[in-house]
Every structure is written in C-alpha cells, then in structure tokens.
Design brief:
Blueprint: H1 24-27, E1 30-36, H2 39-44, E2 52-61, E3 68-77, H3 83-90, H4 93-99, E4 105-109, H5 117-132, H6 139-158, H7 184-187, H8 193-201, E5 209-212, E6 218-222, H9 225-229, E7 238-247, E8 254-263, H10 269-276, H11 279-285, E9 292-296, H12 304-314, H13 327-345, H14 351-361, H15 368-376, E10 384-389
Parallel strand pairs: 3-4, 8-9
Antiparallel strand pairs: 1-10, 2-3, 2-10, 5-6, 5-7, 7-8
Helix pairs in contact: 5-6
Length: 391
C-alpha cells in the first residue's frame, strides 16, 4: 500500500491560509471542547446530543495551484435538548460564528450519526459548485483526497509532540472512552488484507476488527472493536466487517466473532444489490463460520450494547452463565486487546486512547482563539475545532 499523499501546498496569494481577525472578547464567552487532526469523523466523537456545540472544519479542495481551503461552520443543536434551551442557545449562534472566524459554509445538524465525512463533503461540494464552478468534482474524489490529507495531518502531528491533540472541558464527551488505539493503516500503511485478517482471527492478535469493500479492498482495521469500527462505515456504500469480540480476561476470556453486513442509507439500490451479491465471497474470504451475523444501515442499529445483547442470545456457552457476556466483561477483554495492539505496533499504538483519557481530565483550558488559529493556519496539522458555551 503506497504512502498517503501529502496535502497540496498552495502558492502565496491563494485562498488558503486566510486568518480573519478573531474578537477576543467574543471568544471569552466560549470554551474549547476539542481540536484534532482526524477530520470530521474524529470531531463527531466529542458531540453530545444533550448540548449545543459549534465546530470549525477545514477541507482543502483542488490541488496544486488550484488548492484552496474551505471552512465549514457546524452548528450542532443536539436532538435531546429541550425546546426552551435550544431557543436560548440559538441566540448565541452569531457569537460562535465570530469566535470561529467567519467566512464559513453553514452546516446544521442535530444527530451525531449525521455528522460524517460524506455528508460534510456533499455540503462543501454544493458550495464549491455554486461559488466557483467546481462541477467536475465528486464526493468520492473529494473523500479520497480528504482521507489522504487526514493521514498526512496525523503524521505531521507526530513530528510535533509538544502540541496537544485536543482538550475537553467538563467531561462533555461520554463517547470518547469507547475508542481504542490508532487504526491499523495509520500505524502501518503497508499492511495488506491477509496480514490484517490473520491478526483479527488470532485469539491474541493485535487487531480485533477488519472492514472491507465488497471486492475485498481493505478499508480499515483496528484494535478498538465495534465502537471504533463504526467510525469507518461508509454512508453511501456497502461494506463488510469481521469483529473479534472478547469477554473476560486471562483464563476466563472467551472470543466470539461478529460478521457485519453494512449498507449505508444513501447507497443507491442498484449499487447495493450488486454489492450484496458479493456477500458469500466476502464471508468465505473472511473465513466466517459459526458466528453471529448482523445487518445494519444505520449506526443506531449497530451500537456496542446491541451487539453484546445479540451475542448473548446467539451463544450457547456450556456450563456458563449468560451474565458473563456483558459490557463489563467486554471492557476487560478490550484492555487485553489494547495491550496486544501495543505489543504488535509499539507504544505509539496506544497514544490515541491514552490521549483521549488525558483530554477528559485535562485541567488546562486551550484558549478558543488559539485553537481556531491553529485550524486556520496552513502550517499547523489541525483540521477541526469544537467549542461550547462557557458555563
């Protein structure tokens, strides 16, 4: 697998790198929830549907002399908020726009599942076509470029260890702790399908999930199980996954396999039909025998809790109590998987998970103005920041 293509460098005087003046008195009314290099899918990990949050996401479109940055303003008004609270925070929207620098494409969302790379790129594409005639672009092409830019940003962050990946104030994100370490291709880009599958099927392997296309092209793999794998499911395509789910630790651990057949809600029916026909071939290649199979087309149908509950109903464990298959026993096994990930890929493999725990406990607040400036600056690796109202 070839190394990721670095993000294009714009010439002097291009549209990239504009950094509007930020009103410091306005930014004082907000706090930095998090910032990162992993794009909008990473940002989504910090969203809370009981809160209002505002985000700035940078997307570079075009290449070479035509490269330019587009900035997207995410207004996330959680679906779980009361109407009164929603109306009150709506009044703070202009302040959030000013704090994030202005000059952005508006993108309103209420559900975490709707904050994905594909939906973001659809919004950016429509704006590009309307503003400067980018009719020859496509979401798929932009997605490929965005993923390459994200990988390059991750590499750039490694070379700047003094930088903080992100900051979260007040324990805003309960979803973060579900993550594992870095994914396989971020750790070792040359990994192939067979290498990954061998590790997933090994009871003590360093990876516990693999996600592939209907043609068996490797999408991603990792050691963070279902919660991590969900982040890479394509909204407009079909994909298949094999997940090794462990329960318990040491001599009491049991491994079971889950086969996931995913068909994104926005996948065209004809494309879905052709892809679904490849399911037997994919199952054979993944060596899927005697395992739980789940079909999903919405992330709400593929939560960790649902997977564990269905696993309990599926399994027949000789002489064991069904209660041993639980979230608690799963977390015990996931700790062992993390150790295996580090043993296989080195200490760097655990950086994301440890860093996220550190983020939640981080006592120092990253100033909003500093976080915004780092996202808007060409020389910095960060491509998103999320802010919230100061209590």
């Amino acid at each position: 697998m070839s190394a990721p293509t670095p993000p294009p460098v714009a010439p002097q005087g291009s549209a990239r790198g504009k950094n509007p003046m930020v009103n410091l008195s306005i930014t004082d009314k907000f706090i930095t929830v998090a910032r990162g290099t992993g794009g909008v899918d990473e940002l989504a990990m910090f969203l809370d549907e009981s809160l209002v949050m505002w985000g700035l996401v940078k997307v570079v479109v075009g290449s070479g002399a035509m490269a330019r940055s587009k900035f997207v303003f995410l207004y996330f008004s959680g679906a779980g908020m009361s109407t009164v609270k929603r109306m009150r925070f709506t009044e703070r929207r202009p302040g959030a726009v000013a704090a994030l620098g202005g000059g952005m494409i508006d993108w309103d969302r209420e559900h975490v599942k709707d904050v994905t790379l594909d939906t973001l790129l659809e919004k950016v594409l429509s704006a590009v076509v309307a503003d400067d005639g980018g009719a020859d672009m496509s979401v798929s092409a932009m997605r490929e470029q965005a993923l390459a830019q994200i990988k390059a940003a991750e590499e750039a962050l490694k070379r700047k260890p003094a930088l903080k990946r992100g900051v979260s104030q007040g324990g805003r994100s309960g979803r973060v702790s579900q993550g594992g370490g870095k994914t396989a291709l971020a750790l070792r880009a040359e990994l192939g399908f067979k290498d990954v599958l061998d590790m997933v099927r090994n009871p003590k392997g360093g990876l516990n999930w693999i996600l592939v296309t209907p043609t068996l092209k490797l999408i991603e793999a990792g050691g963070g199980s279902v919660p991590e794998m969900r982040r890479f499911l394509p909204e407009s395509d079909v994909a298949f996954a094999l997940v090794r789910m462990g329960f318990g630790a040491g001599q009491f651990r049991r491994n079971n396999f889950l086969f996931v057949h995913w068909a994104g809600e926005k996948c065209p029916h004809v494309q879905r039909g052709k892809a679904n026909a490849e399911k037997p071939t994919v199952q054979s290649a993944l060596k899927c025998d005697r395992l739980l199979e789940m079909f999903a087309q919405d992330l709400d149908d593929l939560t960790l809790e649902d997977c564990i509950e269905k696993m309990k109903k599926y399994l027949v464990i000789d002489g064991d109590e069904a209660g041993e298959i639980s979230v608690a026993s799963f977390e015990e096994a996931l700790k062992e998987d993390k150790s295996a990930l580090v043993a296989e890929f080195g200490e760097d493999a655990g950086d994301d998970d440890e860093g996220l725990e550190g983020i939640l406990d981080e006592p120092d607040e990253l100033p909003v103005a500093e976080a915004v400036a780092s996202v808007r600056a060409d020389e910095e690796p960060f491509n998103w920041v999320l802010i919230g109202p100061r209590p």
